[in-house]
Amino acid sequence: MKIESLRRLRGPNVYLSRPAVVARLRLDELTGVETSDVTGFAERLLRALPGLAEHHCAAGAPGGFVSRLRGGTYFGHVTEHACIELSQMIGRDVSFGRTVSAGVPGLYDLIVECPIDESPDSSLPGELLQAAVDLVAGVHAGLDFGHFRLDALAALAEREAAGPSTRAIITAARRRGIPVERFDDLSLLRLGWGVRRRLAWAAMTDRTSGVGVDIAGDKQVTRRLLAEAGVPIAEGGPARTASQAVDLLVRLGGPVVVKPRQGRHGDHVTLGVSTAAQVERAFRAAGEDVIVERQLGGRDYRVLVVAGEVVAAAERIAAHVTGDGRATIAELIERVNADPRRGTGHSRVLTRVDADEELLERQGWALTGVPPNGLEVWLAATANLSTGATSHDVTERVHPDVARLCLRVAALLGLDIAGIDLRLPDIAEPVPALVDGGEVTGGVLEVNAVPGLRMHLAPVRGRARDVGDAIVRAMFPGGSDGRIPTAAVTGTNGKTTVARLAAHLLASGGTRVGLTTTDDVRVDGRVIYRADATGPLSAQMVLGDPSVQVAVLETARGGLIRRGLGYDWSDVGVITNITADHLGQDGLETIEDLAHVKALVAERVREGGTLVLNADDPWVRNLVERPRVRADRKRVVWFGLDARQPVVVEHLAKGATAYLLQDGWLTQATGARRTPLMRMAELPGAYGGAAPHVVANALAAIAAARALGAGQEDVVRRLTEFDWVVDNPGRATLLRLGDVSVFVDYAHNPAALAATLRTLHKLWGPDRCVVALTLPGDRRDDLLAASAQVVADGVTRAVLYEDEDPGPRARGEVSKLVEREMRARRPKLTAVPAQGYEEAVPAALRLARSGDVVLVIYEKLDPVLELLAQLGALPVGEAPVPVRLAPPKRPSPASVLFGNVATGRHAAYSGWHEK
């Protein structure tokens, strides 16, 4: 068996609502072989992975998979379950898997769930799948495996796992419905969207003062700042030479603490130092830039302050073992480290214990010693969790005086989140006031700007504190979910136009809209990224922009299948139509398959959100019957050109809302009430009503904008301001070149081509159309043939060309197929081959007669516009009849046709179409 490819679905997808990984698995010699065909396979596999006995599989109860295994199942299915079991064995909480045929014998897609807090770039899913493949292949070959590569996989999982602090914030955010995204394998989180977006790095937020972080990182600066504010701290000072450190010991008297001036996690901190020799050793160990301070008596405490509130407090107990009179210290340490909560680093709630042999020696012990029953032997001098310490929750015991002190300390350093380390006789008692010349008996040891949360999340004794929630509440006060209004637009045709129109309508009053489409990503009307931007990465580009107030996301089939959604929920989902296109790709064989994929946008509209659906499309109408769409929990708004559609009539009878074409008006209908919005003849891009599909697109966009709160008057006004040429380039764009009209469009499937040609026939007549046609090479033969037949019915002259990239086909193959089908449909058709758009467009213009229209179907818009500009074509608004235009004042590249895309306006175009 071999894994041919691996892809990550980073959000909700067609398989489940959580992230997943999809592996393309080739079985090779195991093609057609079932587990029951291999003697002893089931028993050997269960010896290797006994946990498989608990897998439900399709049976819905433990043992279901074993029944399938013994009764006979294919090896792709076995590999899926092996991967899930290996994941669970290393503590990776996953349970969902599915194996589906990839359409070729012996080729399967394995879909396995990924933990929601795992980095989208994690290498662990691939490693687990490969381990599962190797294990199943080995068992098939007659080998027995024990814990197969588990140690290496577990170590990788621990390295990449979010730490307890990060997990606590993720959990709290998700509980509140706040979107949260983890970056790489770091502790950096992005919470919320757009203008409500916040960043957190472990327990530090984007509002944490950089000055405060630097102050807390320098222990001497912290000491001075606190001392000058009257905060009790241990007497001491800095030392940069060993002699200075010894002088401080002499002045202070022992015992003292020697610690790095800029240390962390208790590293290289030495307590109980009483002699010059000890000071010198501690000085060198701490990096020769140290703080020497008197060691205070009492207990070690950590108080967590978040946004001016004490949210948790813990007493920290240094790592130690308690003798039983039988075991050595080394054996006692081994028992302590057997606790599954302990691990290396900070990935678990407790850290493994290592003995400080010098400290043991000072207590008169060695690792081989056997301490008597009940005797505590200390293994670390500091009470940091990173050195193996444990914690006891004391939040409810904190004296108000101690709480006030901690709040004051956090404010003095300017920190929104701070961990205050204290040494006090008892945190339940007030802190003694400072007396000039008096001895400090308790006070502040350090201030931590990025405090670890482990000690509060899982104390060994006492109540766990949900400090992650405290941080999230501080970042998102008032119950905010951190979201901005978001609309997702999908369908086969028209989705780019609908998305652009909706974004334009929502931009009223200076609202900053983020928009993704087939052509680019725009923020506040300016292009920030040029590409086919209809997948999850583009969606995250918009949602992660802190200037965006509203998001409109065109969401295409390819991104949905290959990468999943780039968001968890939207407020509005728009489905324009579902018709034959892209069949034969990505496992889509029928329109029903395509509808299943598009339905994901409808399924992921939040409860109480709005579904905007095309009442004229039967596939779209059927979506409301799908269980996962759950239309009963969402507001459905229909749009369409036929106000007599039964679904619309029934909908309005219930008092609901639809957006319809009635008596030549774009109309909002609610119950029996009808509110005319705009005459169809005045709608930009509709060419006086000759393009009804544009009317349908406008109705969908109006419905989406209104659902997101746009006012009726604003919508109508913004609609009249929509400049079709500038704001929707390459979609039904009309130009003039002499006495010939040029109509530029992106139609690539039979339905889109038919709609475009119907428009041209209404404007120019059926015999006045010439086409420069390219069709994508990744389409199935029957779809190419259907498109060719539609074009043959609509034109008398054609120039056929191919894009630079013919996809999976040989160059010239698509053009030959299209020509064959067109000639079969219209034998007298004039068909001219061309090499690329550079030849095709001039050739089509030569075929045109005075008063004709040349339809240019393109694959890449900008080069075609550049060429048309060089030929002298100029935009003419929507006039379908010959007009004489004023000449341009300067050369006309594509930017003169459509303006500077970055500014969204055309500098020299205004008024030409009026002359």
UniProtKB/TrEMBL annotation:
<dbReference type="InterPro" id="IPR036615">
    <property type="entry name" value="Mur_ligase_C_dom_sf"/>
</dbReference>
<dbReference type="InterPro" id="IPR036565">
    <property type="entry name" value="Mur-like_cat_sf"/>
</dbReference>
<dbReference type="GO" id="GO:0005524">
    <property type="term" value="F:ATP binding"/>
</dbReference>
<dbReference type="InterPro" id="IPR013651">
    <property type="entry name" value="ATP-grasp_RimK-type"/>
</dbReference>
<comment type="subunit">
    <text>Homodimer.</text>
</comment>
<dbReference type="InterPro" id="IPR044019">
    <property type="entry name" value="Cyanophycin_syn_N"/>
</dbReference>
<keyword id="KW-0547">Nucleotide-binding</keyword>
<protein>
    <recommendedName>
        <fullName>Cyanophycin synthetase</fullName>
        <ecNumber>6.3.2.29</ecNumber>
        <ecNumber>6.3.2.30</ecNumber>
    </recommendedName>
</protein>
<keyword id="KW-0067">ATP-binding</keyword>
<comment type="similarity">
    <text>In the C-terminal section; belongs to the MurCDEF family.</text>
</comment>
<dbReference type="Pfam" id="PF18921">
    <property type="entry name" value="Cyanophycin_syn"/>
</dbReference>
<comment type="function">
    <text>Catalyzes the ATP-dependent polymerization of arginine and aspartate to multi-L-arginyl-poly-L-aspartic acid (cyanophycin; a water-insoluble reserve polymer).</text>
</comment>
<dbReference type="InterPro" id="IPR004101">
    <property type="entry name" value="Mur_ligase_C"/>
</dbReference>
<dbReference type="InterPro" id="IPR011761">
    <property type="entry name" value="ATP-grasp"/>
</dbReference>
<dbReference type="Pfam" id="PF08443">
    <property type="entry name" value="RimK"/>
</dbReference>
<dbReference type="InterPro" id="IPR013815">
    <property type="entry name" value="ATP_grasp_subdomain_1"/>
</dbReference>
<dbReference type="Pfam" id="PF08245">
    <property type="entry name" value="Mur_ligase_M"/>
</dbReference>
<dbReference type="InterPro" id="IPR013221">
    <property type="entry name" value="Mur_ligase_cen"/>
</dbReference>
<feature type="domain" description="ATP-grasp">
    <location>
        <begin position="223"/>
        <end position="476"/>
    </location>
</feature>
<dbReference type="InterPro" id="IPR011810">
    <property type="entry name" value="Cya_phycin_syn"/>
</dbReference>
<dbReference type="GO" id="GO:0046872">
    <property type="term" value="F:metal ion binding"/>
</dbReference>
<keyword id="KW-0436">Ligase</keyword>
<dbReference type="GO" id="GO:0071160">
    <property type="term" value="F:cyanophycin synthetase activity (L-aspartate-adding)"/>
</dbReference>
<dbReference type="GO" id="GO:0071161">
    <property type="term" value="F:cyanophycin synthetase activity (L-arginine-adding)"/>
</dbReference>
<dbReference type="Pfam" id="PF02875">
    <property type="entry name" value="Mur_ligase_C"/>
</dbReference>
